[in-house]
Design a protein that fits this description.
about 425 residues; UDP-n-acetylglucosamine1-carboxyvinyl-transferase, Chain; 2 domains; binds uridine-diphosphate-N-acetylglucosamine; four-stranded mixed beta sheet; EC 2.5.1.7; alpha/beta; UDP_GlcNAc_COvinyl_MurA; 14 helices; peptidoglycan synthesis; 24 strands; elongated; cell shape
Length: about 425
């Protein structure tokens, strides 16, 4: 077995331009939604990531024909199977997003229960409650969830929490339902809007995506379409923080400024300059930035997927920062790793108190999940000496060519086996 590690050395201020890839969290539900189509689907700006390959593998297993080259994905669907097996679902939680489409198209879906996850128990109760409200019968047993409904019927679904996955899964399930489905307290994330736009291009009738109430009027059939995925706001945020904390000057290209407003606001509060420039933002950092408090919230609040990266930044800030994680119950796995690098962090429940220090020190650490891995790379950029990061497969799930992109900006980063 080959163990790959990423090594990051204390790096100069980052300079140059970095282009942001298509959004992982948009393309995963969009690929799942392609199962609903009766025609050919063409998706552009598809990021070449492990998670994307897992989703492609899964829809192929279910009967789709896919060709994926140079960020362009062509899908023709002829679903044969209603079952998504453990072997495929265990690789990625987002695999559960095929349940809505299969149920909608075939009236029966059997999906392996997604396992626990490093960032909390992450239940699927809201997804199932939605399917049930639309008339599906749900059975759980032998590690599988089975949903059956001859015909789904449009109803009002209220989500106790604006879950991104539940909003997407229910929206997809409802596209062929009789009448009108309303999802209340729906997630407002840009990825939900991108999925709704994609479904509408195929002929769905969805209104209100991006607000807390989404209305889906059932249609008979969906046709093929072409769609370009929105830029990844979390990848953009990660490079913005890298530029900021190294005191760099970086143009982050291919962003939708509206989507990264909460990140711009926090960096500005730290004393960092952020300017809009063409289709990007320029971040001019400084080494002695101020500590700020951060509270993660559903969109348009500060994204939980940027919490770990922001904590890495705060570990080297001037002053003390209070970081509150409200979205996931256990998303501080990176704290112990940052502490190995000398960070001064105390945790009490969902709150972390980070006292910035002048010099982090490079150490051997491990990426406990995707964003935690990104946070360790960021910390490594300003730490003295070498940071050796293990378990980098987590990072490859969600960042396209991260070493190349950082190297092009002047970072000292490389991979060793
Ligand atoms: C998506 C993103 C993930 C991001 C998260 C929150 C994808 C592929 N992943 O994950 O990167 O961190 O949104 O922005 O898009 N919950 C329940 N019951 C449910 C579903 C969720 O209690 O049925 C809870 C979860 O445990 C969690 C919270 O709701 O505490 C948010 O989860 P959710 O928005 O569903 O996240 P995902 O869609 O899994």
């Amino acid at each position: 077995m080959v163990y790959t590690k990423i090594i990051v050395e204390n790096s100069p201020a980052l300079r140059g331009t970095v282009k942001i890839s298509g959004a992982k969290n948009s393309v995963l539900p969009i690929i799942a939604a392609s199962l609903l189509s009766y025609g050919e689907v063409f998706i552009d700006d598809v990021p070449e990531l492990k998670d994307v390959n897992v989703m492609i593998e899964l829809i192929k297993f279910l009967g789709a024909h896919c060709t994926f080259k140079n960020g362009k994905l062509k899908i023709n669907v002829d679903i044969k199977d209603v079952e998504a097996p453990y072997e495929l679902v265990k690789k990625m939680r987002a695999s559960f997003l095929v349940m809505g489409p299969i149920l909608a198209k075939l009236g029966h879906a059997k999906i392996s229960l997604p396992g626990g996850c490093a960032i909390g128990t992450r239940p699927i109760d809201l997804h199932l409650k939605g399917f049930q409200t639309l008339g599906a019968q749900i059975d759980i047993g032998h590690g599988y969830v089975e949903a059956r409904a001859k015909r789904l019927v449009g109803k009002k679904v209220y989500l106790d929490f604006p879950s991104v996955g539940a909003t997407e899964n229910i929206m997809m399930a409802a596209v062929f339902a009789d009448g009108i489905t309303t999802i209340e307290n729906a997630a407002e994330e840009p990825e939900v809007v991108d999925l709704a736009n994609f479904l509408n291009k195929m002929g769905a009738n969805i209104k209100g995506a991006g607000t807390d109430t989404i209305r889906i009027e059932g249609v008979k059939e969906l046709k093929g379409t072409e769609h370009t995925v929105i830029p990844d706001r979390i990848e953009a945020g990660t490079y913005m923080v890298a530029a900021a904390m190294t005191g760099g000057d970086v143009l982050i290209e291919n962003v939708i400024v509206d989507h990264i407003k909460p990140i711009i606001a926090k960096l500005t509060e730290c004393g960092i300059d952020v300017f809009e420039e063409g289709t990007g933002v320029r971040v001019k950092g400084k080494r002695n930035y101020k500590a700020v408090d951060v509270k993660t919230l559903p969109y348009p609040g500060f994204p939980t997927d940027m919490q770990a990266q922001m904590m890495a930044m705060m570990a080297g800030a001037k002053g003390t920062s209070v970081i509150i994680e409200t979205v996931f119950e256990n998303r501080f796995m990176h704290v112990d790793e940052l502490k190995r690098m000398g960070a001064d962090i105390k945790i009490e429940g969902r709150t972390a108190v980070v006292t910035g220090i002048d010099h982090l020190s490079g150490a051997e650490v491990k990426a406990t999940d995707l964003r935690a891995g990104a946070a360790l790379i960021l910390a490594g950029l300003i730490a003295e000496g070498k940071t050796i990061i293990n378990d980098v497969h987590h990072i490859d799930r969600g960042y396209v060519n991260i070493e190349e992109k950082l190297k092009n900006l002047g970072a000292i980063i490389y991979r060793v086996d």
